[in-house]
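dumping the sequnces here before i forget
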Amino acid sequence: MKLTGAQIVWEVLKREGVEVVFGYPGGANLPIYDAMLDYPVHHVLVRHEQGAAHMADAYARVSGKVGVAMATSGPGATNLTTGIATAMMDSSPTVFITGQVVSRFIGFDAFQETDVTGITLPITKHNYLVTRVEDVGPALREAFYIARSGRPGPVLVDIAKDAQQNSTEWQYDPAPLKLRGYRPQRHPLCRQVEQALELIAQARKPLILAGQGVLLSNAMRELQEFAERAQIPVAMTLLGIGGFPASHPLNLGMMGMHGEAWVNQSIQEADLLLAFGMRFDDRVTGNLKTYAPNARKIHIDIDPAEINKNVRVDVGIVGDLRETLQTMLEHLPRLDHSVWLEHIQEMKGESAVRDIQYLPPDGHLYAAHVIHDLWRFTGGDAIITTDVGQHQMWAAQYYRVDQPFQWITSGGLGTMGFGLPAAIGAKFARPEAEVWAIVGDGGFQMTAAELSTAAQEGIKVNVAVINNGYLGMVRQWQEFFYERRYAATPMRSPDFVKLAEAHGLTGLRVERREDVQAALETARASDGTVVIDFRVEQEDSVYPMVPAGADLHNMIRRPVRTAIVETGEDEL
Amino acid sequence: MTMERKMAHTLVVLVEDKPGVLNRVASLFRRRAFNIESLTVGHTEQPGLSRMTIVVEGDDFAIERLTAYLYKLVNVVQVEDLTHTQSVVRDLALIKVQAPPESRTQIMQVVDVFRGRVVDVTNQSLIVELTGDVEKIDGFVEVLRPFGIIEMVRTGVVAMERGSTPLYVPLNGNGQAHPHPETISEN
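..and the predicted 3d for all of it:
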């Protein structure tokens, strides 16, 4: 059948099961948009292409399917880049389709021409510049295959306008793709699995470090069985949250810079670390020279380049985590580490009284209160998206996630402005779910224009602005490390209630703890998107904290002089 | 443990012959902070495959990392480190040297000793072509320098392992992934 390049785009998307696309039209992708009207796909018109990229990213993380975003050439494409880099760092399966100027103008500085494949080369898993209509189909098929296989990631396809307009004979070929230089290894090698099992048998103080790989490979069940059978406690990375139930007795909590003290201490004392689909990021390890000095290390990852990258390991297994755990479970015996577990419990005992109980009842509203109450209100069942900064860490600490694919945050790149568009993307992935974007006043304003997208789409997401009038995390670093010289961190914001109302949405303001519950109820009862402006304590800090590059066990703790224990209801 | 000594490594990288691949490889070296000492690229016996020979400085650990990063590129088919193998390594130089009649005979003798070839002659100069390993060409350049080198270009090395085994063996239909470095360190 003869089809235009633009039609082929939608044919491939249809075959790939794409139901929703986030994007923005322009001169160089008009043919694609024109052809779209003949296909059963829902297009979400964003207000800035960065938003489209984050929506596609979050859509992918929640649904497990490939997320798709589109933009025109030049500024449309460059606006995508922050979102592409975010998806790259967090291994999110995404396909970005950009229009490019007519092929004979490429290289002549044409209007809205940018070398998009050049710009996105280091922030994509792979990319394509398509200048011939015959290459549109193959490039897009490969893009989807590469995006979702192996270690997932963003793939960009830049299509010249004439390649969209021209026609060619084209038929979808369902045969599996074979790429000469791309064959992700899924099956672990036996010898390495045996070596890992030997190390596990010898260990007395083993610890599992669970990363996002657990979620990406759907290994939640295997992880739980593994941990239970071998009685090994589980610590999670920021992106690993949801891969193991927070309420499980073997769950320790989050590790790293703002992880629980007992988790980091356990890592330092462990004699065996089992790193499952995580990458020993510097925010997780602290000072590498003093990191887990007593531990032998087993690292399972689908990306061979992650093995021995930051931390040299004793056994590195390249493979799909789920398949690898299944193989290991065939041989894993029941083990008993009660002495070690009791020891961790003792450490926890000292520090288990969480920050929230130390907050002074001075009439101020604290971010921890808001997130704790939101967790109770939603029963931990909501999809939570966040921005980046203090509120993100508080959300990671106080919103306890039991289910996978409900905790959506920008980890690797740390992209402010992620929260609201991510919430919109998540809502399209699971329309029946209650979605809350927990954002800071700074990050919210970076992409607040997407409120308009939510309003136009008539979807309901809830935005909890943790408003402290500062770029809070930067302010915290200035407090700790720059003698409280608050350079460029105080921030004056617009009236967020009126901002919501200007979009035809509901806006609420909460200034006292006792009003939190009512606001949450109003938000839930409301039909459309709701913004709640939580005016929280301005100079609160996230505790505990491992300063960047410091030893993992040397954490800054909340000053105890403010310790006043609140009601037992805050017990976690 | 592996040796932690920095030295020049000679990598052979087979890549798909597609637009932008050289850029992808070069960009990776820059991004991951590796310095390329020399890079050559050309066709191979396999249709659709180009062969890069890259000389890069680093210890064995760094080269292992680099190899893993190279394999992440979708267009990279195979990476081999020929440094510790029995290999033929060749560089080619064209050297334009001042050669007035009084020193010409002497220069020609030197060229003979190094088994170079004179490929261009004028009243005042010669262009000499020399092929050999890096040390040989370095030595030749030093000997010529006093005569006055006007211009020089070197291709950078190409390398090939000795023996009858081919570097590239096409994978069968459901073959294993390309070989990647052993992921077990010997403690």
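Chain B touches chain A at residues 15-16, 19-20, 23-24, 27, 31, 48, 61, 64-65, 68-69, 71-77, 171, 173, 175-178, 180-181, 183-185, 187 (CB under 8 Å).
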